[in-house]
Amino acid sequence: MVVLKSKGEIELMDHANSIVQSVLDEMERMIAPGVSTLDLDRRAEAMIREASGVPAFLGYNGFPASLCTSINDVIVHGIPSDKEVLEEGDIIGVDCGVFYKGYCGDSARTFAVGSVSSEARRLLDTTRVSLEHAIQAVQPGGHLHDIGHAVESHVEEAGFAVVREFVGHGIGTAMHEEPQVPNFGSKGTGRRLKPGMVLAIEPMVNVGGPGVKVDADGWTARTTDGSLSAHFEFSVAVTEQGPQVLGVARDAAAATA
Ligand code: MG
Ligand code: MG
Predict the structure, then answer these.
(1) How far is the CA of 30 from the centre of ligand 1 (A)?
(2) 2 lies in some domain
(3) CA–CA separation, 9 vs 22, rounded Å?
């Protein structure tokens, strides 16, 4: 069942996501060669708690941290560690979830560490822009798979591959609600999008093949071919007027549209 949210609930989710965005902004400032992923996680957790939020990932099915930190060939769900130190030329996906007054925000960005290869830059740009296209597909009366179609067509045009084993999701009082939001699909198919739905849309894109393998830790998901992977995510509400990207000032959201 898809739970529709009231305007008041969407405002709380906007606030939860604004905490997430301030954490991701701080991560962008901190990320540099020599910084460990545990350094990032500690700072993120402190910021979340200072903002009266609760880290949504910490303890989720036993996950041990407040962030997922996913370097280079890691697609998603990397575990922060003091043994994992950023190097010039890496890319790192940072995913963050926060509960505020019982409502969840969830967003991710992939950052370059210093200067990166032109291929890595193209991967980051392609994945970020595929999310922008996906957001434009969030229209009342539209169809769920319009979203995945927008991601997939942009990514395939660039010659990259969409990950199919992980998907976006509805979000609300739980981090993962119905419906699943795949990053592929046929336009005009899937359930109708209705005002009050809130969806976490999160393209995961590999330079090589779409395959995924999970490390022995049970979390860290990598590309099977060792190629680079990127991940961007926003929580987006369906409104009568179209998509509302949560946690982002309205004028900033309009500027990226
Ligand atoms: Mg996320
Ligand atoms: Mg998510």
Answers:
(1) 20
(2) no
(3) 20
Residue 57 belongs to a domain: yes
CA of 61 to the centre of ligand 1 (A): 15
Question: From the CA of 98, which ligand is nearest?
Answer: 1
Contact status, residue 96 vs residue 44, Cβ threshold 8 Å: yes
- Is 151 within the bounds of a domain? yes
Contact by Cβ (8 Å): 36, 86: yes
In a domain, 145, yes or no: yes
* CA 168 to ligand 2 center in whole angstroms: 6
**Ligand showing the shortest atom-to-Cα distance for residue 183:** 2
Domain with residue 28: its CATH number is 3.90.230.10
Mind listing the pLDDT tens digit of every residue in the chain (257 residues)? 899 999 999 999 999 999 999 999 999 999 999 999 999 999 999 999 999 999 999 999 999 999 999 999 999 999 999 999 999 999 999 999 999 999 999 999 999 999 999 999 999 999 999 999 999 999 999 999 999 999 999 999 999 999 999 999 999 999 999 999 999 999 999 999 999 999 999 999 999 999 999 999 999 999 999 999 999 999 999 999 999 999 998 666 555 55
User: Which ligand is the nearest neighbour of the Cα of 168?
Assistant: 2
Task: Find the ligand nearest to 169 CA.
Answer: 2
Q: Under DSSP, is residue 46 helix (H, G, I), strand (E, B) or coil?
A: helix
Whether the CB-CB separation of 172 and 198 falls below 8 Å is answered with yes
pTM of the model: 0.96
Q: How many domains is the chain partitioned into structurally?
A: 1
CA atoms within 13 A on the CB side of 255: 5
Distance 141 CA to ligand 1 centre (A): 26
Domain region containing 148: 7-256
**Are 105 and 55 contacting, i.e. CB atoms less than 8 angstroms apart?**
no
Distance 105 CA to ligand 2 centre (A): 9
